[in-house]
Amino acid sequence: NPDYGESSGTVVPFTAKEITALLNDNPLTEELLNELLKKYTSIVVSEIDNAYIAEGKVDAGGVTAESTKITVRLDEDTLLSIAEKVLTAAETDTELINLCEELKICTKEEYSTALQEALNSIADEKTKLNKQAEDTIIMTVWVDDKGNITGRDFSYASDSEKSFLGYKTAKEGSDFGFEAWVTPDDSEELKAEGKVGISLNGVTGDVKISYADTDTNTSETFNIKLEDVKYAFKDYSGYINGKFTITGDSLSGMSILADCTGNEEQQSIKLDFVRGGVNLVSVIMDSKILAYKDFELPSVSSKIYDFEAQMEEYISSADIKKYLEGINKKIDVEGINAVLEQYINAY
After folding, report:
1. Is the separation of the CB atoms in 195 and 61 below 8 Å?
2. pLDDT at position 2, please?
């Protein structure tokens, strides 16, 4: 199908021209997104009838704010009912159907088939429900005085003290705190937390990202210091200004300083690798948006790899060791060379 940019047997979902056209005329407008969110959120809320509300405070990243805490219990029967109601509404939602087609997610026929298969699967799951075997999920939601959701927390009723997924935010004056975590099992935890001040100059503060695995006795922590960081998005491009300082357990005492300067036309990033107060090396990266220029897809005789299905084949055919050795020789910085040599030895 030429509409999908087919070449040499490999189907490309979008051509470069189509991507540019999509960015310039995105069918998912802010108004449509807001309309869809309201519609399907109301369906979800209407299925929940056992909510508990309490006024109180929320603490996130060392910032405390007034908040309303809402706790709901979601058993498997409720979750299946929510999914069924959402999919049933989506079956005849012409705006959502047209959006999927315009974004080339699927055709109208594929959309209808997929939803019907999902509804059949839900009906099948409902017949297999074992009320005694259900593990109810407890969802906690924090809401500020303006009605904005500022946090969510998910845990199982069998262990309500241990959350497996969640985030919290709190704002007090110009201070903003946040925490987010994923705990897939008892041995692993990925967590991010921080406290920043927001002003006209940008965002300034500290963020910590940590990962712990008790099964393998590994723990990694990265600290990121932000100074006057601002992000802007204009005319389909984003750019960032400000400074970041990154330190961490695995950086062997080295700090990475990133100084970002950008505008609508160009983004520049300068990276300084510092150890013991000495700047080991500086790396400067500049990027800018160029006017669209059409290009040709590879010819039939070119070797093409499908990264979803042929990644191993591609890596096995590439001389990664030679590539890394070339980079290692050109960098010639002790701290960075030590890290690259570990990868080279692996080959």
Report:
1. yes
2. 39
